[in-house]
Design a protein that fits this description.
Blueprint lengths: L19 H4 L1 H17 L8 H5 L3 H29 L1 H21 L3 H11 L5 H12 L2 H32 L2 H22 L13 H24 L4 H23 L7 H4 L2 H29 L12 H29 L1 H21 L4 H29 L5 H28 L2 E4 L2 E4 L1 H23 L9 H19 L1
Antiparallel strand pairs: 1-2
Length: 497
């Protein structure tokens, strides 16, 4: 028998999640999510002055917000699917690069056409959060995943709370182009940080990209959201708005039919229609509606002139500072959300968050005249939003295969976006119908604001009810929970096969 020496050990790659770069994965992705939210918010303080600064109409300037909304809604599920197929880090880097390019274009130009096109490019950054959550699922061990996903979800509110006062101070004390140079520099930093610190995920879903599915979804969503966002301005019964809604319904119906018959669809509708996934999307839509009303109404309420009898006449900078405690609260409460999801399940966390949002609006209805009560009510709504938004991606992670995480979370973010667009239209419709003249200018009445709060609170309760109907969320503690999780995973694997 031949004598053989010891077999040399096979070279192994370092475990995922180890090394100095890997330890920066969560902070870098959280920074990118915050930067995305800041980018979406910074243009808000500019809107009143942009017609004068660009020599255009107020209607044209409003497209700087609408263009970002439309492109983000279309690109989020598309880029999520591309990330699952071609690599999440690669697509995430491209999204951040488009956002940075849009900032540079805004910094270099005062032409409204260029600015609108640039803001449409920046809409690609809406995919940052779902792509990052998918990366965290692939890269982190289970014990770190929950808190990291919760933090990633909270960056949306944190960035929005930071972006408004930051932009307001820049607009007040410097040239408005400076703001976009700042976001350009931060965007370039984000691209470099992702390229250096984030590893490319090995989890892929190979196949052929559904180009026709992407085009059909784009046409249907643009028609729908354009009608919702412009309905108040163009008239809800106008031929343009009715034509957009009818066209959207026809295109999305045809798109749905084709997706069910395509071997490699852009969106796996059979997965979407499973109760655990579909009801999570419904809850996301309702939560997005309820959350967005807080940001819309609070800023208008505290800036209303004192002559209204309820307004505080605050400046834009002071308004941003009023919203800042909500952002800090979202940062502080994201770990709590992860702990609740671990011990009780994300369905309970989502329902609790929606109920807290409703309580926040109850505070707003009780007192919207004193500044401290306004800040308290807005902060309670932000707290509930943290719990709800942190639980939604965890629900999706537990319900879909690993190779479809980015696309499924992209659809969930899309549903939040649709909810926010519907909230904007509904709040505007309520406030327009409840105005009184102040100095010859129609200003929303306090009754109108209270109706908006009541509407948002009712939608939050509907989101709570939807969360409680989500099936198959096993208990997380004790041997029975482990048994339920094992059985649920086996059933999902058999269903997928």
């Amino acid at each position: 028998m031949d004598q053989q020496g010891p077999i040399p050990p096979r070279p192994t790659s370092p475990p995922r999640g180890a090394g100095p770069r890997a330890r920066l994965t969560v902070p870098v992705l959280a920074m990118c999510g915050t930067l995305m939210a800041v980018m979406q918010t910074v243009v808000v303080p500019l809107l009143p002055d942009l017609p004068r600064l660009t020599g255009s109409s107020a209607g044209a300037v409003s497209w700087m917000v609408t263009a970002t909304l439309l492109s983000g809604a279309v690109l989020t599920p598309v880029l999520g699917r591309a990330g699952d197929m071609y690599g999440k880090r690669r697509v995430l880097t491209a999204s951040l690069a488009l956002m940075t390019l849009g900032s540079v274009m805004c910094a270099l130009s005062s032409d409204i056409t260029v600015l609108i096109a640039a803001r449409a490019l920046q809409g690609a950054a809406a995919s940052v959060v779902p792509l990052s959550i998918s990366i965290l699922r692939d890269e982190l061990p289970p014990e770190r995943r929950g808190s990291a996903v919760a933090m990633m979800s909270s960056t949306v509110g944190i960035g929005a709370a930071l972006g408004l006062p930051l932009a307001a101070m820049v607009v007040q004390y410097a040239d408005w182009h400076t703001m976009f140079w700042m976001t350009s520099a931060l965007g370039a930093l984000g691209v470099a940080a992702v390229w250096w610190a984030v590893r490319e995920s090995p989890v892929r879903q190979p196949g052929r990209f559904d180009v026709w599915g992407a085009l059909g979804l784009a046409v249907g969503l643009v028609s729908l959201l354009l009608g919702v966002s412009q309905g108040g301005q163009w008239g809800w019964g106008s031929p343009r708005v009715l034509g957009l809604f009818l066209g959207s319904a026809a295109v999305l119906t045809l798109w749905w039919w084709r997706q069910l018959r395509t071997e490699q669809p852009l969106v796996d509708l059979r997965l979407v229609t499973r109760p655990r996934v579909g009801l999570s999307h419904v809850a996301a839509l309702l939560t997005g509606f309820a959350f967005y009303a807080n940001s819309l109404v609070t800023a208008q309420l505290v800036q209303a002139p004192e002559a209204t009898g309820y307004g505080l006449g605050l400046s834009i900078v002071a308004t941003g500072l009023c919203l800042l405690p909500g952002g800090v609260t979202m940062l502080l409460f994201s770990p709590l959300s992860a702990r609740i999801s671990t011990s009780r399940g994300p369905r309970v966390t989502l329902a609790l968050g929606a109920a807290v949002i409703a309580c926040g609006y109850a505070l707003r209805i009780a007192d919207s005249r004193d500044l401290w009560m306004i800040i308290l009510g807005a902060t309670v709504v932000s707290t509930g939003t943290t719990l709800a938004y942190s639980a939604l991606p965890t629900l999706i992670l537990r319900a879909v295969p690993a190779e479809q995480t980015a696309s499924a979370n992209g659809v969930n973010v899309l549903m939040r976006t649709i909810g926010q667009a519907a909230s904007s239209a509904a709040v505007a419709a309520v406030l327009v119908h409840h105005t009184s003249p102040v100095g010859g200018v129609p200003v929303p009445t306090l009754h109108g604001y209270l109706l908006a709060f009541a509407m948002a609170g009712a939608v939050a309760l509907a989101a709570c009810a939807a969360a409680l109907t989500i099936p198959g969320d096993p208990a997380s503690d004790g041997p029975r929970g482990a048994k339920d999780r094992t059985r649920g995973a086996r059933d999902e694997a058999m269903e997928g096969a």
